[in-house]
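User: Second chain of the day. Same drill as before.
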Amino acid sequence: MTDYPVVTTGEGVTRQVLADHPDLMVVAFRFAAEGAEGALHNHPHVQSTFVESGRFRFFLGEEQREVGPGDSFVIPSGLAHGCVCLAPGTLVDCFTPRRDDFL
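Assistant: Same format as last time:
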């Protein structure tokens, strides 16, 4: 259980910080419906993504990748990325350093 609030980030998408430290942050992104989107964006943080549940099509720069439960990957600093939910589920993302904009 975490004391951080659940924040709506888009239609059918929420985010909740699970743990944070200045050097690292763990965040759950929950996608409630097929077609929900994680908007294309980039940031200076290195990000790792773990698919806890569901299926997603990720856009990583020029690459597209479909991922499901148990898959994980790293997104380098500055790389444009986003996703579309193919089946409802949860992504657990870690950021280094911490995403202060999420606090």
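The two ends are 17 Å apart (CA to CA).

User: Great, on to the next one.
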